[in-house]
């Protein structure tokens, strides 16, 4: 029977065990994201009188799952896929810094463009307290259809944040691929959504040119 010290050593230093734990944590996050988004769960909340809190509870569950992932995550510094020394190559530091700043600005900007309070679920609660209609029902059919297919502010920016990094450890690379694969499989944006986005962009351009 293995000693306690051997078990602790294996838990702390075995890369394969750490990868397994990280994969389980990622699975927890993915399952939460998928389970709370199921139609049956939404109908259950609606039947129990919590329909107005649906989006709020979804974000709360996402935050909790993400915190569990962050707190219990096992980095694997011994397995490095690539490493670029930013102290040796100062231009590389600027490249990574500017790339990440732009990516975060795109994500934050996308949140506000997508109506941040509605995205978080706070607007639904406020409107309900005021006896106003669901804020999503006030949006156009095209936008509601797009939201039903894609609710994340930016897929490309998240890709940059996950993959453009000076030191790529194996755990970060796995995290990037799992999250990106999940987003690709779960995103259902189609030609109709693309045409809607294009029309809105053209309308904004006309409005800016006329102003």
Features:
single chain, 211 residues, mainly alpha
Protein described:
The protein has helices spanning 4-13, 15-35, 39-47, 54-72, 90-113, 116-120, 122-129, 141-149, 155-163, 170-186, 191-210; strands at 80-83, 167-169. With 211 residues, it is mainly α. Strands 1-2 form a two-stranded antiparallel sheet. Helix 2 (15-35) packs antiparallel against helix 4 (54-72), helix 5 packs antiparallel against helix 9 (155-163) and helix 9 (155-163) packs antiparallel against helix 10. The chain is globular, with a radius of gyration of 21 Å. The N and C termini lie far apart (78 Å).
Give the class from helix and strand content and strand pairing.
mainly alpha
General shape: globular
Q: C-alpha Rg, in Å?
A: 21 Å
Major β-sheet, in short? Answer: 2 strands, antiparallel
Strand-residue fraction? under 5%
Weakly predicted, low-confidence segments? none
The count of helical stretches stands at 11
Spell the H/E element sequence: HHHHEHHHHHEHH
Mean pLDDT: 88
The side-by-side strand order for the widest beta sheet comes to: 1-2
Instruction: Write down how many β-strands occur, each being a DSSP E stretch of 2 or more residues.
Output: 2
Report the span from N to C terminus. Answer: 78 Å
Measured as a percent range, the helix fraction is over 70%
Oligomer: single chain
């Amino acid at each position: 029977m293995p000693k306690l010290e051997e078990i602790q050593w294996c838990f702390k230093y075995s890369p394969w065990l750490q990868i397994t734990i990280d994969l389980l944590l990622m699975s927890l996050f993915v399952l939460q994201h998928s389970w709370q988004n199921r139609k049956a769960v939404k109908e259950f909340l609606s039947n129990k009188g919590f329909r107005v809190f649906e989006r709020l509870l979804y974000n709360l569950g996402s935050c909790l799952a993400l915190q569990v992932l962050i707190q219990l995550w096992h980095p694997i510094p011994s397995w490095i896929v690539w490493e670029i020394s930013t102290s040796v190559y100062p231009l590389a530091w600027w490249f990574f810094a500017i790339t990440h700043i732009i990516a975060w600005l795109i994500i934050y900007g996308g949140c506000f463009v997508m109506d941040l309070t509605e995205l978080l679920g706070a607007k639904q609660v406020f409107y309900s307290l005021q006896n106003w209609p669901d804020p999503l029902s006030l949006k156009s059919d095209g936008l509601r259809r797009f939201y039903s297919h894609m609710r994340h502010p930016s897929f490309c920016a998240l890709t940059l944040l996950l993959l453009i990094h000076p030191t790529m450890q194996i755990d970060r690379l796995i995290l990037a691929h799992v999250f990106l694969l999940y987003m690709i499989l779960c995103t259902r944006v189609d030609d109709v959504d693309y045409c809607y986005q294009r029309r809105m962009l053209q309308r904004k351009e006309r409005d800016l040119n006329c102003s």
